[in-house]
Amino acid sequence: MTFSPGCEIISKKLNTGLTRDSELGVIIEFKKLMPEPLRYNRKFDELTEKEQELLEVNKKSIADFVEQSSSVSDVNYATRNAHAKTYAVAKGFFQISPSAPGFLKPFFDKEKYDIVIRLSNAHPKIIKKGKDIPAYGFAVKIINDHGNTIANYPLVNFPLFPINSVSTFLKLFTYVNRSFILAAAAQFLKVIPCFFTFPFIKNAAKLMVKRNHFMLSFNYHSVGAYRLGDHMAKIKLVPKSVEKHFGKSMKQRLAVDSYLTEHNFTADVYIQLCYDLKDQPVNKLNREWRNSPFIKIGTVSLDKGSLLDPRECSNELLSFNPFESKTIFQPVGRIQRLRKEAYQVSVQTRRKINKLLHGV
Predict the structure, then answer these.
(1) How many structural domains is the chain composed of?
(2) Please, which domain of life does this record's source organism belong to (predicted)?
(3) N or C, which end of the chain has less CB nearby within 10 Å?
(4) Domain range for residue 338?
(5) How far apart are CA 235 and CA 66, in angstroms?
């Protein structure tokens, strides 16, 4: 597919601070230049019979891990099998941008929505001593006026996922869940080549440079695509005016707690739409999308003092399963499809154990 040279200019403009009128003008120009986005099709999510069998084995390993997770992390509750450590839970708002494209109106008919966010570390074990790996999560739950979930978006501070093979992914994480690292070594050897693509190395190098930065200064991404009605999109959250060296001498959890107690937090929310699978592949998560401008659709805001107690049982039981979203906002793709049943098994096991432990 051939794009007008103006698309590159628009992409750059959309990543800079524009006035409302300027931003609206860019959107109008963008709509003239870009083709119609591709439509969602269930074929993007289909698994083979063998992959479905491997998924069943993986689900059993997830349940086993969660049942043993309190011992693995030496805590008095069952944890998630990924992003086990909670840095913070907070209430905030998702504000739709006045210059957001008109096609968003059927999906977001209000100007402002309540949200709950969870900040976390990706490690499946809660590390209490030493330094956390710089792999962070920023999960967002968008809520309607009745307190029901509209959409869950678990975002991470690394835009790519190295493994495209469903079978390899399932085998690897089954071993990780079952034996927690030791017996998984052989499987890791098989996926090592996946980490040596140019996009992955480039983004890994960027992360290493920023590894000591404050977690709220990172950009956060949806690794895979999500439905936006009949279309498909990736999401990017870009914090505004956060000092990257904030709380440098503190542990991340304490730094986050201090920052959200003393400061307001705001981040712009952008989407990229899928127009052509060659440039915006849905099932190749180790590639960044090209030739699809970032479109600002709104802002996420957390007022200072909006922290909730992450150790309170109701907050620990929170689920940010993207498949609990409305159908029009759910994940797309084969690797993404695996998360549906994996999330369900994880949260059901975790809630069952924690309700028994804490009598709720």
Answers:
(1) 1
(2) Bacteria
(3) N
(4) 35-358
(5) 29
Look at residue 105 and tell me if it is in a domain: yes
Residue given tokens 């739709």 in the structure block: 96
Close Cβ partners of 185 (under 8 Å, ≥ 6 residues apart): none
Residue 8: pLDDT over 50:
no
Instruction: Give the DSSP letter of residue 132.
Output: P
Q: What is the pLDDT of residues 278-333, one digit of tens each?
A: 999 999 999 999 999 999 999 999 999 999 987 776 677 788 999 999 999 999 99
- Alpha helices (runs of H) in 224-308, residue ranges in sequence order: 252-262
Tell whether 7 is covered by a domain.
no
Q: What is the pTM of this model?
A: 0.83
- Please, what sign has the CA dihedral across residues 116, 318, 68, 331? negative
Which CATH number fits the domain that encloses residue 263?
2.40.180.10
CA pseudo-torsion sign 108, 136, 256, 314: positive
Q: How many CB atoms lie within 10 A of CB 8?
A: 12
Rounded CA separation 46/68 (Å): 31
Confirm if 4 and 33 have CB atoms less than 8 A apart.
Answer: yes
* 129 sits in which H/E element: none
Classify 254 as helix, strand or coil. Answer: helix
Any domain includes 21: no
Q: Is residue 26 part of a domain?
A: no
